[in-house]
Amino acid sequence: MSSDSTYESYYVPHNSPLPIFASLGLFLTVYGGGSLLNEIQSGSGGNFGTTVFALGGLVMAVTLFFWFSKVIEENNAKMYSQQMNKSFVWGMSWFIFSEVMFFAAFFGALFYVRFWVVDWIGETDDVTGGRGPSSMIWPDYVPEWPLLNNPNPEQFPAPAGVIGAWGLPLVNTLLLVASSFTVTLAHHAINNGERKKIVGWLMVTIALGLAFLVCQGVEYYEAYTHYGLTLSSGIFGSTFFMLTGFHGAHVTIGTIMLIVMLGRAMKGHFTKTDCFGFEAAAWYWHFVDVVWLLLFILVYILGT
Amino acid sequence: MARKESKVGEGQRLKTSLQWLIALAALSSSWQALADWSALNMTKGVTAISREVYDLHMLIFTICVVIGVLVFGVMIWSMLVHRKSLGHEPATFSHSTKLEYAWTIIPIFILIGMAVPATSTLRDMYDASGADIDIEVRGYQWKWQYTYLSDDPTQEVKFISSLLTPPDEYYNRTPKREHYLSDVDNPLVIPINKRVRFLITSNDVIHSWWVPDFAVKKDAIPGFVHEAWAIVEEPGIYRGKCTELCGKDHGFMPIVVKAVEQAEYESWLAMKQQEALQVYETVGKTWTMAELMETGEQVYAQACQSCHQANGQGIPPAFPSLVGQGLAIGPVDAHIDIVVNGKAGSAMQAFAAQLNPAEIAAVVTYERNAWGNNVGDLVQPRAVNALISSEE
Amino acid sequence: MSAVIENHHDDHHHGPDKGLMRWVLTTNHKDIGTLYLWFSFAMFLTGGCMALVIRAELFQPGLQLVVPEFFNQMTTMHGLIMVFGAVMPAFVGLANWLVPMMIGAPDMALPRMNNYSFWILPFAFSMLLSTLFMEGGAPNFGWTFYAPLSTEYAPPSVTFFIFAVHLMGISSIMGSINVVVTILNLRAPGMRLMDMPLFVWTWLITAYLLIAVMPVLAGVVTMMLMDIHFGTAFFSAGGGGDPVLFQHVFWFFGHPEVYIMILPAFGIVSAIIPTFARKKLFGYDSMVYATASIAFLSFIVWAHHMFTVGMPIAGELYFMYATMLIAVPTGVKVFNWAATMWQGSMTFETPMLFAVAFVILFTIGGLSGLMLSIVPADFQYHDTYFVVAHFHYVLVPGSIFSIMAAAYYWLPKWTGNMYDETLGKTHFWLSFVGVNVTFFPQHFIGLAGMPRRYPDYALQFADWNMVSSVGAFIFGFSQLLFLFIVIKCIMGGKKATDEVWEGAEGLEWTIASPAPYHTFSTPPELPERSMA
Ligand code: HEA
Ligand code: HEA
Ligand code: CUA
Ligand SMILES: [Cu+2]
Fold this sequence. Notes:
The structure holds three protein chains of three kinds. Chain A is mainly α. Chain A is 69% helix and 0% strand. Chain B is α+β, with helices and mostly antiparallel strands. Chain B folds into three domains: 2-126, no CATH class; 133-282, Immunoglobulin-like; 285-390, Cytochrome Bc1 Complex, Chain D, domain 2, CATH 1.10.760. In chain B, helix 2 crosses helix 3 and helix 9 (357-369) crosses helix 10 (381-391). The interface between A and C is large, with 79 and 84 residues.
């Protein structure tokens, strides 16, 4: 550890009501969400679930708002030492690492299905190779990827086609890569203290993010209506929508983070030495970008 | 398998010394005297593979016991001797590169010594030579279905094998007899000294087909077929269990395999094929209400009771009641349909694969008229057959 | 623990509040540690009661107390509660109490988030336990919840189970981020990584494992949720998926998870044995490297839980060899502990008794683990009571004993009072005998062929099941004695000195007993390099 840091002033906050409200909010959200799903499943109403879910979301949103305000306030009051900021940096990095592992689970599933299961289901009487003669059960099944002929088409009607890589997905790739550059430009602007440019580049980044989301919406619409490619159209649809869907959710979160940063930048926050909030958002944005590149290669280019 | 022969003597010696160790352990952990040692150890089994596995087990077990005795010996020695109360002064060493290398490298060699025989046994198990007999083993909640595959579909023999022990025994209402929870109505019959291949799969959740005497344990995974094989050397009755949690009656779906001489096997198979032919005749015949109710009650007890219960009340909400509500008193076609085709994604199976049309007709009739359901109508096997063949 | 008194030297900080709000709102690592520990103990008793239901039903063949549906719920909830509710929070509680004191930090790095991590847990477990009262019953598919039993065929309460797992995951991830950041950023000036006590080292590595695998668990339950409610086909062959995919993803989490439950225990034992042997820990460096190797290997061995699913032979061999390798670094640890004891000047207070029992009984569990890793033999062991015996040996006299040892060892520091040594020793001997009587016979039951998760069994297994059940009740009820000892110690007793144990080393022994509410508000001067 660097002994030059100002250890003496490590700030330990006194009691705080924020965490308990955040726990409550989280609990209500998932409890409501769970009830709602079960109510839908059993075809009974959905009022209770929706209400609790919405209430939880509200508590959560309000708490998070106060929580971040409090942190920003403390930061502006110069209560945080250099060392404290390092804690935030480490914290954010490990958080992103955990997110990487979350996506890894889904990429792993795609990899496993794509490289093994597709063939195993269609395997004939081959004793040593894979998992036995499963084609006994699915005589009409054709191993291929993307899977346009599901083993059991009654339960999982297969899609007529899938989204190619070189249309909207390519556009989206360009959008996100560009936005990674613009967010870096905003960072440079912070380092140079150029207020107008900070706001400008942030706005461009947010616009690119929103454009990405719109394109993805269009793409989903096409998938559902033109191709019959849905969540329930077999394993291709499952992996496709889960990977791109969670990615989209992360883009949304990242965009919200950037909007908050935009607001703060407009208020005159962020200097070369004090811009951790911005940096965290930017890292998150880069992370989202990298995940997209992986998606683009593994799901779209190699997968279709 | 010649390589294995030399191991027998060694295994024998190990066994004697191990029995001593087990005895010590047993004495120290229990006041119960158990005379039968075989109840404490892995079975040797009746196939070459199962004996190989047994030897492997004894080998690794012995290595572990020896390591344990050495390590614990050192610790116990120092606990007895290096005590403060005996005035022992602490030494000051805290490193020894030599020692640390030694106890990193020696274990690696021990591990290699275990890995070599393990690898060769595993390769023997994955041996791919062709089979004399192919049997499909299909897990259902909570019974097994066996199909003797044949190139000629009319020669295929197919039957369900389920628990024989009556509920009275496991609910402690009558004394438990021999083979409690280990006996089935229709055991699997295989010939000895033939290479029998089991093609294992499942209809609903994951089960696992385990016969310890063959050292065969393979998961039955819905939608996939996995294989295992055995060449049984001695005639006899071998008992196994389902070993993957598969729901409520996971503990109540035993396996029984009867290994017999080739000739006996052939006559048994011929008899089964004959039975299958008779079914066609019963389907054509017109049944009376009394016949349907009688057969229906039997079929119900064997196939439906585990879920819908003897009184038809089920265990709601998991297993619906059939009394005074729903399909059992509703339109008869829908009632037949759910029994024939099951309900996807629920425990209610497609019974067309397990019961013949006469049995389905009987059980539907029974459900519609038992427990005060008194709908009054009756279903002829012909009608069920028509439904099944119209779907094909 | 409530006896912590205010320290007036800390004039620029507040002492604890009064009343309930102190616990709800606290950001103090010691308070939060206490909360975690009590919570975990409550869960231990809850999960233990479920184990006693299981053992009572298995006392004799036949169904006497519960129906199979409920038995399966008990097995499932017992496993889940013990793993996620008892062992993991106990270690997090210990980390909260000890890591800042051991590295000379004023608190955890992110104190508000620390409180958040804790308070999610009571909500998560209330939700999980409430499933017992839901229509269709609680989760009944085992703590490993294999699809499709846990998806298509599951009771409706599975939805809440999934969200409860999400909550636990969020809590663990935040808790571990806090630990990692504290260790990396808040060490007293001059304390290098290789100066840290082993408990801190093992927790650093554990936290890393947690951050890496809890999200994968979240991923797999999310796939379940989608399969159940949104028609995806991850675990369904009909749509091109595979039930075995579930197992791969689950065990990618699950195997590191079992080391999450043992690495901090290694750290605890590495603190206690040197103290009572009055001798430096043998091989500090190799201890650190061994821990890191175990963590690394834990990521590449997961399919040893799936030898019977029908993997291709290359997969079986690879996972067998990789698994066997773990014996090497673990062996290094065991040998180092033995060498630490060798030529020491030992006394056997309660913490030492638990620590020594840990080493011996954990090794027995480890050796049976090694047997399980041999594929052909595992075909016979898999899903029998031999496996149950294996993992209870590493978990009960392993993890749980280490937690008990830690509690006795640091209680005087936490409360300022010595616990009652005679009662402590009684507790130890009852537990030691109880645990062995419970779990040793399960090796025999398993080898003789009794599968696990069976509510009823064939007659030849009767004798040893009865012995095992008797042991379980002895062990279970002995834990009430532990509760009594802890409460008695909090209420009063012989005052503890600051050093507490002759021969104890480390920063936590340089501060007052009981530890003041705020410690190390200014970083301490390190004693000469002897932290190991
Ligand atoms: C704290 C938890 C913990 C720990 C530390 C371990 C440690 C090990 N486990 Fe265990 N295990 C579990 C918890 C744990 N396990 C659980 C919960 C399950 C069941 C899950 C379920 O299905 O519900 C399980 C199941 C399980 C299986 C699957 C069994 C089956 O279902 O068929 C296997 C198979 O390989 C296995 C292996 C091992 C090995 C090789 C180790 C090794 O790490 C052990 C290493 C230690 C030693 C070997 C002893 C000390 C070493 C020496 C003295 C050196 C000299 C030794 C030699 C050279 C041999 N474990
Ligand atoms: C850390 C984890 C942990 C711990 C500590 C334990 C502790 C115990 N376990 Fe558990 N067990 C598991 C983890 C653990 N287990 C797992 C993961 C499984 C697999 C689950 C699955 O298959 O899915 C399992 C499965 C399992 C089975 C197999 C069930 C089956 O296959 O059907 C059995 C059977 O004997 C068992 C027994 C016990 C016993 C007797 C204890 C004892 O140590 C318990 C001690 C008892 C107490 C501590 C109770 C004390 C309370 C009182 C005396 C009452 C006081 C009351 C009040 C104060 C209100 N366990
Ligand atoms: Cu079938 Cu367990
Ligand atoms: Cu494992």
